[in-house]
Design brief:
Blueprint: H1 3-13, H2 20-36, H3 48-60, E1 76-80, H4 88-94, E2 99-104, H5 107-119, E3 124-128, H6 131-134, E4 144-150, H7 155-162, E5 166-176, H8 180-193, E6 196-205, E7 212-220, H9 234-237
Parallel strand pairs: 1-2, 1-4, 2-3, 4-5
Antiparallel strand pairs: 5-7, 6-7
Helix pairs in contact: 1-3, 2-4, 7-8
Bound molecules: S-adenosyl-L-homocysteine.
């Protein structure tokens, strides 16, 4: 089966029916990624079949752990440490009603994202900055219905970088590998301090043995205290609650 047919059938297996517009944009994004990789170091995963599963399908798995009606709703999300746009770009493609801010600390990646958002006509904003600083800006604090992050930091630090962006009543989804539960055990105290509650862990496996995943959803129950996030680097260097 061709890599993209495979994506359609694997997406369908997790309850996602991708239409032809979405498929065309995902293919276009893959082409932009391969092209962009010649100029900037965007991803190690370039083989089409592997990228389709490990980047595209993996990004879309977060939809399978959120209430289905959210997909059609007009809502906003932030993807913290989005890198080359994962999970943010595939989510903007598949949920055209969503507005997404793609935040990253690396200028070259943000430049690539800005070009891609324009080329793909997505309702997104590529933002250059560090989460520790951007989360203190009232334009971004407590503003988002959803926050996502993949492969950015351990769960405690990640919660400190992501939860301040989320509105009370919104949700944060951390995309983790098989160490998800262990990281979560060490992060529970921090999550509570940061205003998170209602934690759920969803285990899933990518097809063709491409890896185990844990999607950790955290609801934001109360405002994050003003002290957080701490200054740049602190969330990683001195994980909260440990
Ligand atoms: N989410 C992407 C990229 C992961 S690599 C993916 O899964 O493919 C981690 C990215 O997070 C890098 O691009 C790095 O620049 C960014 N990053 C790390 N710490 C950050 C911070 N505090 N604020 C903003 N971006 C950060």
């Amino acid at each position: 089966m061709d890599a993209w047919q495979n994506l359609l059938s694997e997406a369908s297996a997790i309850g996602l029916e991708l239409d032809s517009d979405a498929l065309a944009k995902l293919k276009r994004y893959y082409a932009l990624l391969i092209e962009g990789n010649k100029k900037a170091n965007l991803t190690r995963i370039t083989d089409e079949r592997e990228a389709v599963i490990k980047h595209f399908l993996d990004s879309l798995t977060v939809l399978s752990v959120l209430p289905r009606e959210l997909r059609e709703r007009k809502l906003s999300f932030i993807d913290v440490g989005t890198g080359a746009g994962f999970p943010g770009i595939p989510l903007l493609i598949v949920c055209p009603n969503w507005h997404g801010v793609l935040l990253d600390a690396t200028g070259k990646k943000v430049a690539f994202l800005a070009e891609s958002i324009q080329a793909l006509e997505l309702d997104g904003l590529a933002l250059h900055g560090r989460a520790e600083e951007v989360a203190r800006d009232p334009a971004h604090r407590d503003r988002y219905d959803l926050a996502f992050a993949r492969a950015v930091a351990e769960m405690s630090a990640l919660s400190e970088l992501c939860l301040p962006f989320v509105k009370v009543g919104g949700r944060f989804v951390a995309m983790k590998g098989s160490a998800g539960e262990t990281e979560l055990a060490k992060a529970r105290k921090a999550i509570k301090i940061l205003g998170g509650a209602g934690i759920e862990v969803h285990a899933l496996e990518l097809p063709e043995g491409m890896g185990e995943r844990r999607l950790i959803t955290v609801s934001k129950a109360s405002a994050t205290p003003k002290a957080y996030p701490r200054r740049t680097g602190m969330p990683n260097q001195q994980p909260l609650g440990q």
